[in-house]
Amino acid sequence: MNKIPIIIAREYITRVRKKSFIIMSVLGPILFAALMILPAWLSQIEQTEVKRIAVVDSSHLFRNVIPETEFLKFDYLENVSINALKDNYASLGYYGILYISHIVTYDPNSVIIYSAKQPNLATKMHISNHLENYIRDQKLKTYNIENLDDILKSVKTTINVRTIKITEEGEEKESSTGIMMAVGYVSGFLMYMFLIFCGTMVMRGVVEEKTSRIVEVIISSVKPFQLMFGKIVGIALVGLTQLLIWIISTFILVSIAQAIFFPEFTMTPTEQVVSQDIMSASPAGENQSGGTEEMEQLRSALSTLKNIDFVVIILTFLFYFLGGYFLYASMFAAVGAAVDNETDTQQFVFPILLPLILGIIVLFSITNNPDSPLAYWCSIIPFTSPIVMMARIPFGVPWADFFLSAGLLIAFFLGATWLAGKIYRTGILMYGKKPTFKEMLKWVRYKT
């Protein structure tokens, strides 16, 4: 067994020196940090292109109903044919044409924007919201209610349902279902990606050594099981190294980007309150507060992220990665030993990948309902538990579920490693014959 560390070191050093490992170690954190910061940064960037839209109102009832913004202007045209305007609106300097039909009050599809470019969602929502509010107010006025405007202002209410999670110790932490779903889905998807990436790396390594006949020389010095086990552990360490590099580098990059692009999020709660008081006291305070609604939502989301116990998530990820990796890598190693070339692996690989594919298919459904029977059983069954349990962890998992899932995963990967060792021992030196599942089952029954 003293030769296993040598095999592990060989596999590890050989693979971390590859250009692909170095490139992915650099690009991975940049990609993850961009995915976390870029959407928030883009939401802060205001549109700088002024869009001038020609409004053709066939009912003549909606003039000046849609308010202009800094980058959105409306020209209400009279006695203009919509068909004639379509031919030359661009030459007149218009971004597009807004046509409001006289049947808009009972036909919701009678408002049309004609433009060469696809209008963004904010433009469409700005137009539809103000038209809806105006039509609603006009309908209410037909009931001859006194002080209708004051009544509408007084009854207008905004509800933001906050989620406060109470821990077993009685501590209250603010949470967000959307954030939890995102963290769970990303964790499950990363697990899926790492298991397939590292598992296929083991299989290809075995196939390469077998086709090049190097394995015949190695087997003369070590036992087949030692070679298989050393290869699996060595590649596991490569995967863990890259994972830790990604975690640490992504955390550093996100912290730097947050300090540069979102300095207000690094403020203490007291500083944030003082800053909000200054903004509300300014003459434009009302407009500023209304214009930063998205930023408030973003601030709430980042506040929720701070309350997530990422230490637990990372430790759980490492455990399920190792357990799932040993389970699948042993099967991939057995497949690699049984075939003569990578082309012949296809018929054996699909049954191995099927549980992983199933886990990623049900992942979104499980993040929607982490306590459903589907979520429970998929997080207990060892072949899907590495992916599904990571989707449940952010929502909180009972200790009984976790220990049952972990115990079954350990038992299954030990059994899978033992079976794979039986197949590996016989298949690694067999050439010229395409194996079948029935043939591999015979190899398992061979006595040592």
Roughly what is the average pLDDT, rounded to an integer? 80
Number of domains: 2
Strand line-up across the major sheet: 2-1-3-4
Number of distinct helices: 18
Q: What quaternary form is this?
A: single chain
Largest sheet: 4 strands, mixed
Model description:
- The protein is α/β, with parallel strands linked by helices and 448 residues long.
- It has two domains: 4-40 and 180-445, no CATH class; 51-155, Periplasmic binding protein-like II (D-Maltodextrin-Binding Protein, domain 2, 3-Layer(aba) Sandwich).
- Helices cover 66% and strands 7% of the residues.
- It contains 18 helices and six strands.
- It has helices at residues 4-16, 19-44, 82-88, 121-141, 148-155, 177-211, 214-219, 224-261, 269-281, 285-291, 293-307, 310-338, 346-361, 363-368, 373-380, 385-392, 399-427, 437-445; strands at residues 51-57, 72-77, 96-100, 111-115, 163-166, 172-175.
- A four-stranded mixed beta sheet has the order 2-1-3-4, with helices on one face. A two-stranded antiparallel sheet has the order 5-6.
- α1 (4-16) packs parallel to α8, α2 (19-44) runs parallel beside α8 and α8 (224-261) runs antiparallel to α12 (310-338).
- The longest helix has 38 residues, at 224-261.
- The protein is elongated.
- Residues 268-292 have low confidence and may be disordered.
